[in-house]
């Protein structure tokens, strides 16, 4: 029996997608803001350039998590985006 996907909404484009397709950013009660792990308030973001750019410009992650997001977290997201774009370019 196949289970229905768990849907989450991107904080930037507001599109509902399967949570496996999105990046998860968590405000962890111990470690601050972390990616993909931990328990706490979560925000989800599409792994594409437009959503990341929009989220940064309009401070969507900060608003969703109700806290400041460190530059290091933003750099990791940008590196992930660059890495996935490199993979796509090599495949073509």
Low-confidence stretches: none
Rg, Cα atoms, Å: 14 Å
Q: Please, what is the oligomeric state?
A: single chain
Q: Estimate the strand proportion.
A: 15-25%
- How many strand elements? 5
Average pLDDT taken over every residue: 89
Spatial ordering of strands, largest sheet: 4-3-5
Domain count: 1
What is the strand and helix layout of this fold?
Layout: E1 7-9, E2 16-18, E3 23-28, E4 32-35, E5 40-45, H1 49-57, H2 60-65, H3 71-91
Antiparallel strand pairs: 1-2, 3-4, 3-5
Keywords:
single chain; 92 residues; alpha+beta; Hypothetical Cytosolic Protein, Chain: A; three-stranded antiparallel β-sheet; two-stranded antiparallel sheet
Outline:
This protein is an alpha+beta fold and 92 residues long.
Can you walk me through this structure?
The radius of gyration is 14 Å and the shape is globular. A hairpin with a 3-residue loop joins strand 3 (23-28) and strand 4. 21% of the residues are buried. It has a single domain (7-91), classed as Hypothetical Cytosolic Protein, Chain: A. The mean pLDDT is 89. The chain is of the alpha+beta class. It is built from 3 helices and 5 strands, in the order E-E-E-E-E-H-H-H. A 3-stranded antiparallel beta sheet has the order 4-3-5.
């Amino acid at each position: 029996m196949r289970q229905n996907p768990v849907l989450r909404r991107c904080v930037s484009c507001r599109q509902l997608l399967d949570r496996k397709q999105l990046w998860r950013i968590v405000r962890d009660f111990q470690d601050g803001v972390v990616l993909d792990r931990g328990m706490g308030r979560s925000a989800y973001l599409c792994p594409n350039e437009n959503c990341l750019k929009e989220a940064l410009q309009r401070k969507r992650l900060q608003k969703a998590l109700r806290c400041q997001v460190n530059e290091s977290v933003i750099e990791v997201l940008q590196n992930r985006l660059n890495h996935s774009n490199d993979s796509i370019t090599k495949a073509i």
